[in-house]
Amino acid sequence: MHAGGIGSWNVGDHDGRIDAEFAALPLRNLADAALANARALGADHADFRVERVRGQRIALSDGKLESLFDADDSGLAVRVIVNGTWGFAATVDMTPEAAREAARHAVEVAKVAAAMNTERIDLAPEPAYGDVTWVSAYEVDPFAVSPREKVDLLAGWSAGLLAHPAVSHADASVYQVKECKFYTDGSTTTTQQRVRLHPELTATAVTETGFDDMRTLAPPAGRGWEYLTGTGWDFPGELAELPELLAAKLKAPSVEAGRYDLVVDPSNLWLTIHESIGHATELDRALGYEAAYAGTSFATLDKLNSLQYGSPVMNVTADRTAVHGLATVGYDDEGVAAQSWRLIRDGVLVGYQLDRRMAQLKGFGRSNGCAFADSPGHMPLQRMANVSLEAAANGPNTAELIAGVDDGIYVLGDKSWSIDMQRYNFQFTGQRFFRIRSGRLDGQLRDVAYQATTTDFWNSMEAVGGPQTYVLGGAFNCGKGQPGQVAPVSHGAPAALFRQVRILNTAEEGK
Q: Is the peptide bond before 266 cis (omega within 30 degrees of 0)?
C-alpha cells in the first residue's frame, strides 16, 4: 500500500449530491468571516468547520417497536494556533457574526492557554487541494426511506426468528448516520458527505436451566439502505440459520481449559485488531500524550522498524480510502488527503497513525490523515484509520485452514473483551465456538475465551486466509479523549490460523 492524495471525486451509485439543506447554508461566507477575523487578531494558523450529523436509531423487541429517535447535531467551529498554542471555539449559530465571534473567542482561548503551554504546537505541511467534494459509496440514502418501511423490515425479520421453537425473544435494531462536513483553512476547502449503518438482530433462548443468546455477524458498514435489502450481506440467509445455531449452542458442552489451535473468523478478529493493533499504533498513545479510554501503548517509538509484532505472515494496513469503511473519508479534519499505508510489514512494526501535530513533532514529514472530530462542538483528535490485517494473495479458504488443525476451536463473532492500559495483555470471547477435531468441525462449545499477550498472539499466527475469506468489520463507537468523543472505524481481516493459544473456561473463571 502506498500513501497518496486524491482530487475532487464522488463514488457510489447515487447521484453524488451533498444534502440539500447542508449545501444551502452560507458555508463560504461563514468561513470567510471566521478566518479573516482570526488572522486579524493574530492567529498564525486558522481552520474552520461546519458540520451536520444526523442520526436515527430504530429498535424492536419481539417484533414490536420499542424506540425510534432522531438526532441532529449542527454547528460551526474555529480552531487556531496563536504563538504556538491551540485555541478553539464553536457555536450553533450559523451567521457571519457568530463565526467572527467564534474566531475571536478561539484566539482569546489560545492567549489564555499560552501561560500553561509547555510545548509549541506546529503542524506538518500539507499540499493545497483547492475546492474539492467527496461523497462516500452508497446507493440509497437511509434518511430517504420512511420509518414505516424500516420498522416493517425489522418486524418481518423478528417474526421469522420468533417462529422457531428455540427462540424466546428477538431484538432487532438499526442505527444510521448521515454526516455532512465543510472544512477550509483558506487553501484547501472540502465538502464531504458519508453515510453509515449498523444493523443488529439477536435471538434469545430461555429454558428451565437458564438462557443464552446469539447475534447476527453482519458488521456495521459505510453503506446506504441497500445494505439491508440485498447488497453487501445476506441477512435472510443468516437469519434462517440463527435459530438452529442457537438451539445447538444450548446443548453444547463447556470447553475444557487448555491450549488449542484457533481458526479465528474475521467477525471476531476485527475486534482483536482494533484493541491490540489499532489503538497501540496511534502515535499520540505511543508517545504518552493520550491515555483516555484505551491507555497508552507498549509499541513505543523506539521500537519502530524493530519490534517483531507478529509472525512473518502478518501485514497490517491503515487505510482512510477503503470502500465502505467506517473511517473512510476524502480528507480528514485538518485538510489532509486520505491515504493508505503500512503499520506492520512481515510482522515488524513499520508505521503509526498520525495527525499533523504528531507528524511534525516527530519528524514524519506529513500527516497520514488521522484527525477527526465527532461533532462541531469538539476539537479534532488523532483518530484511528481503518486498520486491517491483509489477506494472503493466494491464501487458503476457511475450510482449508480448519483442515490443518488436529485439535482446536473455530471462533466467530465478537462479544466481551478486556485489555490492559498498555494494549498488551488481553482476553476475548465470541458469539460462536466450534470444536475442531482432525481437521473437521465437531459441534459447538460454550464458555470459551482466548487469552494472550499481543506479541505472543500475533507471533502464533501461522497462516492467513485468502481474499475470499476477507470481511470488513468494525464499530460506530470507538471512544477517545477528554471530553470524550466517539468515532466510527472498520477493521478488515481474513480468517486466520493461530497455534497453541491459551483457552479459559469463562464459567469456571467466574466462580
A: no
Cβ count near 33 (within 10 Å): 23
Q: Are strands 407-412 and 258-264 parallel, antiparallel or unpaired?
A: parallel
CA dihedral of 235, 140, 130, 384, whole degrees rounded to 10:
-20
Query: What whole-number distance in Å separates Cα of residue 384 and Cα of residue 282?
Result: 7
Query: What residues does each domain of the chain span?
Result: 20-251, 258-509
Quick one: cell of 176? Answer: 444510521
Radius of gyration of the chain (CA): 24
The CB density around residue 333, as the number of other CB atoms within 10 Å, is 27
Task: Return the amino acid letter for 506.
Answer: T
Tell me if the pTM is above 0.90: yes
Give me 58's grid cell.
Answer: 430504530
Parallel/antiparallel/unpaired status of strands 348-349 and 371-372: unpaired
Chain CA centroid to CA 471, Å: 14
Q: Long-range contacts of range 4-9, CB-CB < 8 Å, 24 or more positions apart?
A: 4/337, 4/339, 4/340, 5/127, 5/129, 5/337, 5/338, 5/339, 6/134, 6/321, 6/330, 6/337, 6/338, 7/129, 7/132, 8/129, 8/130, 8/131, 8/132, 8/133, 8/134, 9/133, 9/134, 9/330
Q: What are the 10-residue block averages of pLDDT along the chain, 511 residues in total? A: 33 64 96 98 98 98 98 97 98 98 98 94 97 96 97 98 97 98 98 98 91 96 96 94 96 97 98 98 96 93 98 98 98 98 98 98 97 97 98 98 98 97 97 98 97 98 98 96 95 98 90 60
Give SS3 for 91. strand
On the 0-12 / 13-18 / 19+ scale of CB atoms within 10 A, 2 is exposed
In this structure, are residues 436 and 405 in contact, taking their beta carbons and an 8 Å threshold? yes
Q: Are 111 and 43 in contact (CB under 8 A)?
A: no
Which three-class secondary structure state does DSSP give residue 180? strand
At the topology level of CATH, where does 20-251 sit?
PmbA/TldD fold (3.30.2290)
Measure the CA dihedral 58/64/67/69, to 10°.
40
Cα separation, 370 vs 458, in Å, equals: 25
Distance between CA atoms of 454 and 442, rounded to whole angstroms?
Answer: 29
Residue indicated by cell numbers 513505543: 300
Q: What's the 3-state SS for 286-306? A: HCCCCCCCCCCCCCCHHHCCC
Cell of 449: 475465551
Q: Which helix (H) or strand (E) holds 360?
A: helix 356-361
* Cell reading at 351: 508505521
**What's the rounded Cα separation, in Å, for the pair 233 and 478?**
23
